[in-house]
Amino acid sequence: MNKKRIKELEEILIKYKTIDLKLENIEDRMNVLMEDIKIVGVSYEQKGSPTNSFSSNVENEVIRRAEQNSEELANLAKVKNELLLFKNVVYRALNTLTQNELDIITMRYLHKEKKSWVEIGMILGFEKDYCCKKRKSILTKLEPMLVAI
Q1: Whole-prediction pTM value?
Q2: H helical segments located in 37-127
Q3: What are phi and psi of 8, to 5 degrees?
């Protein structure tokens, strides 16, 4: 596996660590949009047209905002589904790892603070060089499962 592909796989794992936060933010935005349209009273200053049709600035604004919000909600739903697919693919791939492999990947890519190879080796009782070599074999093992991303 070449260095470019290793870097891509590492970026996937780093992105995975923040996926839940991104999903929560999308959910929050979707909730705000759904609650955004508020019905406001009609002003008596508005008059109907000679054809007795009635056009309210408030109604027009509510309709415009509802259309805008619907469009944004659809876009957010699409992004949310893509993120959920990403999360599920990576989760299933990580579940194929042994406990030692998962520990190495978790400490290196999934913790808030990225641990150095020396720290990982000390915690797991391995040499730094072993952890570095193991990383490449782990990423090689994960690659076919993460090809869909």
Answers
A1: 0.76
A2: 57-94, 99-105, 117-124
A3: -60, -45
Q: Is 50 helix (H, G, I), strand (E, B) or coil?
A: coil
- Could you tell me if residue 88 is inside a domain? yes
23-63 pLDDT per residue, tens: 999 999 998 888 875 544 445 555 555 555 556 676 677 67
Which is more confidently placed, 73 or 62? 73
Q: Which two tokens stand for residue 133?
A: 């070599």
Phi/psi at 130 (5° precision): -60, -45
Does the CA dihedral 61-66-69-71 come out positive or negative?
negative
State the residue range of the domain holding 30.
Answer: 3-39+55-145
Residues 6+ apart with CB under 8 A from 143: 1, 5, 9
**Count: domains in the chain:** 1
